[in-house]
Amino acid sequence: MPDSIITLTTDFGEDSPYVAAIKGVILSINPSARILDLGHQIPPQDTRHAAFFLASAIPYFPPGVIHVVVVDPGVGTERSLLYVEVNGHRLLVPDNGCWSILVRGNSPRVLKLAEPRYWRQPVSATFHGRDILAPVAAHLSLGLDAQALGPEVSQWARLELPAPRREGNCIHGEVLFVDHFGNLITNIRGSDLSTAAQPFRIKVGEADVSLRVRSYAEAERGAVVALVSSADLLEVAVNQGNAAQRLKATVRTPVVVIQDA
Amino acid sequence: MPDSIITLTTDFGEDSPYVAAIKGVILSINPSARILDLGHQIPPQDTRHAAFFLASAIPYFPPGVIHVVVVDPGVGTERSLLYVEVNGHRLLVPDNGCWSILVRGNSPRVLKLAEPRYWRQPVSATFHGRDILAPVAAHLSLGLDAQALGPEVSQWARLELPAPRREGNCIHGEVLFVDHFGNLITNIRGSDLSTAAQPFRIKVGEADVSLRVRSYAEAERGAVVALVSSADLLEVAVNQGNAAQRLKATVRTPVVVIQDA
Amino acid sequence: MPDSIITLTTDFGEDSPYVAAIKGVILSINPSARILDLGHQIPPQDTRHAAFFLASAIPYFPPGVIHVVVVDPGVGTERSLLYVEVNGHRLLVPDNGCWSILVRGNSPRVLKLAEPRYWRQPVSATFHGRDILAPVAAHLSLGLDAQALGPEVSQWARLELPAPRREGNCIHGEVLFVDHFGNLITNIRGSDLSTAAQPFRIKVGEADVSLRVRSYAEAERGAVVALVSSADLLEVAVNQGNAAQRLKATVRTPVVVIQDA
Known about the structure:
The structure is a homotrimer.
Chain A: E1 5-10, H1 17-29, E2 34-39, H2 47-57, E3 66-70, E4 81-86, E5 89-94, E6 109-112, H3 128-141, E7 165-167, E8 170-178, E9 184-189, E10 200-204, E11 207-209, E12 224-228, E13 233-238, H4 243-246, E14 254-259
Parallel strand pairs in A: 1-2, 1-3, 3-5
Antiparallel strand pairs in A: 4-5, 4-6, 7-8, 8-9, 8-14, 9-13, 10-11, 10-14, 12-13
Helix pairs in contact in A: 1-3
């Protein structure tokens, strides 16, 4: 059953006829496919943002679901298109690394899409999501063996999110992602922090954050707080407010945790 | 059949991996669940807006559909999560009153979610939509008897939209909702107005509205008009224009109807 | 199977309870209907934009799918609502021409919706999408013969996108559509251009574009390029940038192709 579910993640925007065309192509090949939108507002060509988005979403899906990802700054170049199986998840993606942080230790199976018989003809120079990824997803959802798509490959682009670095009693990280609420999700893992018993201070850009809570609402409305997010990442938030605006922070703003001895 | 339909209404934004994670959790438990987006642009933590949204949408659905609502300023506090049956509709909601105007006279059945066996473990402190509401919805869609979710309760938060008040020949109300077109939907019911035969004037903030029509297009393009909306509420609109911008009005702007004797 | 798929295209916005109400009405009549969002961000009442959107999306769908289009500046006037079969596609649309460029030579079958037994009662004056188009779509998805909806008609509104005109060695066209990336899609067909061997220059408003590529990524990052889009239209883009902002262009900005002798 999950084999017939196809999810879509793109940078096309909600207003785009391109997403609609992809849906049409899929249903033309498999009218029973169950199409699910994951998100169409990845910032244009931002593979790093796509990587964070996929890492935050794909692990929650059951195996068998087919995830189509169209964030593709290299369309029209020689970059490959890939079929990937990683930790039971199946993705169809441009070879730009946006999926590589899903690996987490296990070996993925990666095929290069090379069989035009499963593509829409003629293949345009600018819209491989519609002409290659969508029809391949539809064929897979009908039960096509992935083996048929092309040769297995052992090289692919890797995109790692920046890792924090420790220096004395400090951890230097940065903002990875600003969510819709203005919460700042950093690249510092909750498990890297000292235990709650040990005090620490946080600097986000030039601003100090000293209040540590388990959830936003523990603090009073409007307070700036630090907490460990539902994805085990250090997060800086304003209870019922917008931390990005308040602290003038955005993606890549430095975040320093100073742990007292 | 409608038992397998799960709708989602959140304040997470269209760009959010959080909505995607909720979809993944639901499909992990019930791969046959049919997920339907209602809206993800409730303004952050705005339970009043959520209440208007739900009152405008839920009554049109058939009974049996499961509606998950994640607008949850109290996540992490002692507020409960509820299963509600109201007028045949089934909702999973934080106990913040966003559903209570759906009651309209009938007694709802309300259970407090208290059985962690139907939750995702571990439950995070900040994302009960993913960890509690989504898995409970999925289990219900598989046929779980709601009885199993927790004890019935008789107290819950109530959130009433502001009621208009009558004073002499005036009705004092306010703007409840500004739609995507800039139409101002007020809290004054069409049935509270004098009949069309009797003239009345309307003030929206400092602006006067004197033209009353049955539909936008009865007036000429650009005219400011008052009409009774498809939900029986007094609405102020500009034919093919934006009334909120034109009249500098927004949610809570006072609206006064002056009925001539 | 495609008969139970109903797509929705509206100008209601993503934040709208109106779209949710339409979904509820459809499922109330056919709980098995498979609802697919195509787009809800058609600019308000912009039938020309809707026409371009539909022409870019509908042809990719399999026959049998039912497409509901609610972009309806004339709601409440005497404009008709139509059932249309065109090139195998089935649409339910206000009679405002938004679908007419789908015809491309073949004769469409057009019925005027005239049988209130398939409508939601009472029909509001301002929301025919919910009260007429949605329930009619649901009945069709259950297998209702379109014949039953009303009389066949031979007159309907036509909306043609502006055609380019040739003058000496120039083609004068305009920007039809600006996509989410800021790419400028013009009304000049790729097949009207001289072959790649013959040089030409392009003016977009006051700006010159001289670099012609097959796909965005052939040029260096930030370069302004012209290419033939995946829909065979001349397109002006900035590789990994925003051409609309860079060239200060928008819908209706003149575009001139000067073909050298």
